[in-house]
């Protein structure tokens, strides 16, 4: 039954039958050998070794089992024991070609390992990596070779490659807490705090009392909590609280620059979003200096420049960001909006007409409007020319107030479109019509009525 199931590729069922066969006849060397074949088909070479050893113990001249065991030992980097098996096969069968080839490989592997270790000691890390490439090709299940190559990559600053080498060693070596700790620290130093937390938890799962792992876990956990809560505050538009969290991040981890860089980027974003213009420009510029290719810092500084009515500089930041990511639609739309605003700034600017900032609230806009409306009321002027000029100014002030106190029209204007410009209206100029009756003061003692053609 085991043979039939193995031939059909039903490995788990085949293994179950071979377990029963071994229990039923524990002195049959072939049963152990066949069960080892199932383990190997399942990728469980460690489990196959005891069965091959038992088969050889029961039948010392079983050359197939010796060859198979030698091949596994070679792949595990155990060259001394592998060579003993190949030599035993050659002693019984001098012409065995496979044993001759594998013995040569084992000797070649010994030479490569020695050279790689010597190169590492001399700090010739690139050369060591080249040699270890050959070692791992001959012994892919040897954790020591991968661990040594990971150390070389760490010295070379190639942390992602070190991670790729260390991950398999957590399976190749039992209770490899040291690898989990090192993986966690590598991810942490790359700014990948979530993956760092996953790896350090694996270490503690093996031994919850491991002191180095627990100490690192506390640090990663604290930092992760601060970072996650800061992002939640940003989603909820609670920007002041998010800034506090990111400032805490920089205190929690002052030595790993990637977290300080990330914190400055996100604080820049929060300041820009909360319209704290001067602070945003200062901090975004500082963040840009330490991370000049960061498109999000450039985007947020551009938005702060827009709030500060520095449209040319906003366009420049968006252009620079697009050089790094030309396919980003948000940057494309932002640049188009900044260009529109730059063009409009050379025409009619409702914020300038009322003398308010772009982040002014409705109350501030109405206050500015009332003051200017009273100042430029046509009844305050006697001469014909002065009255005409005052009427023109008064209409501009009224238009500015109407646009900036209407959320929909203000949004259009902030996006670079003049909602009162007939060219921007759909349907060929059927745009906003001025009211025939105009009451500039909705409350108070001033009541004026004007009729405009």
What does this structure look like?
With 453 residues, the chain is mainly α. Among the domains are: 1-156, Tetratricopeptide repeat domain (Serine Threonine Protein Phosphatase 5, Tetratricopeptide repeat); 275-346, Alpha Horseshoe (Serine Threonine Protein Phosphatase 5, Tetratricopeptide repeat), CATH 1.25.40.10; 350-410, DnaJ domain (Helix Hairpins), CATH 1.10.287. The chain contains 23 helices and no strands. The protein has helices spanning 2-7, 11-24, 29-41, 45-58, 63-75, 79-92, 97-121, 125-138, 143-155, 159-172, 177-189, 193-206, 211-235, 239-252, 257-273, 277-290, 295-307, 311-324, 329-345, 350-354, 362-375, 384-405, 407-414. Helix 11 (177-189) packs parallel to helix 13 (211-235) and helix 15 runs parallel beside helix 17. The longest helix has 25 residues, at 97-121. It is elongated and about 125 Å long. The chain starts with a helix and ends in a 39-residue tail after the last helix. Residues 427-453 have low confidence and may be disordered. Residues 96-126, 321-348 form a coiled coil. One of its GO terms (biological process) is protein folding in endoplasmic reticulum. Residues 349-417 form the J domain.
């Amino acid at each position: 039954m085991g043979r039939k199931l193995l031939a059909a590729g039903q490995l788990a069922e085949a293994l179950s039958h071979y377990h029963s066969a071994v229990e039923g006849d524990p002195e049959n060397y072939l049963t152990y050998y066949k069960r080892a074949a199932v383990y190997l088909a399942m990728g469980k070479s460690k489990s196959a070794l005891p069965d091959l050893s038992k088969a050889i113990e029961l039948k010392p001249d079983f050359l197939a089992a010796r060859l198979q065991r030698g091949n596994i030992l070679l792949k595990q980097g155990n060259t001394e024991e592998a060579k003993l098996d190949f030599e035993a096969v050659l002693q019984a069968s001098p012409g065995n070609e496979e044993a001759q080839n594998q013995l040569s490989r084992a000797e070649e592997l010994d030479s490569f390992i020695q050279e790689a270790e010597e190169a590492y000691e001399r700090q010739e890390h690139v050369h060591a990596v080249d040699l270890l490439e050959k070692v791992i090709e001959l012994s892919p299940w040897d954790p020591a070779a991968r661990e040594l190559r990971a150390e070389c990559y760490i010295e070379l600053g190639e942390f992602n490659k070190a991670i790729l080498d260390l991950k398999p060693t957590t399976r190749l070596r039992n209770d490899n807490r040291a690898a989990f700790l090192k993986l966690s620290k590598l991810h942490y130093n790359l700014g990948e705090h979530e993956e760092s937390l996953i790896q350090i938890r694996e270490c503690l799962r093996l031994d919850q009392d491991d002191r180095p792992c627990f100490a690192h876990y506390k640090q990663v956990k604290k930092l992760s909590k601060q970072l996650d809560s800061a992002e939640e505050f940003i989603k909820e538009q609670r920007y002041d609280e998010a800034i506090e969290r990111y400032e805490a991040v920089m205190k929690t981890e002052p030595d790993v620059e990637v977290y300080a860089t990330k914190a400055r980027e996100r604080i820049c974003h929060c300041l820009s979003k909360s319209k704290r213009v001067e602070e945003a420009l200062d901090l975004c510029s500082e963040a840009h200096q330490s991370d000049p290719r960061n498109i999000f810092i450039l985007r947020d500084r551009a938005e702060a420049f827009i709030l500060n009515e520095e449209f040319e500089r906003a366009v420049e930041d968006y252009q620079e960001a697009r050089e790094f990511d030309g396919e980003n639609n948000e940057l494309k739309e932002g640049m188009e909006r900044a260009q529109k605003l730059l063009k409009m700034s050379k025409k009619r600017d409702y914020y300038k007409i009322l003398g308010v900032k772009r982040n002014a609230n409705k109350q501030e806009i109405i206050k500015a409007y009332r003051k200017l409306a009273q100042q430029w009321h046509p009844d305050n002027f006697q001469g014909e020319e002065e009255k005409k000029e005052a009427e023109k100014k008064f209409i501009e002030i009224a238009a500015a107030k109407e646009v900036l106190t209407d959320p929909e029209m203000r949004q259009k204007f902030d996006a670079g479109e003049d909602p009162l410009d007939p060219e921007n209206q759909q349907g060929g100029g059927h745009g906003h019509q001025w009211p025939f009756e105009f009451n500039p003061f909705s409350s108070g003692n001033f009541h004026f009525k004007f009729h405009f053609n």
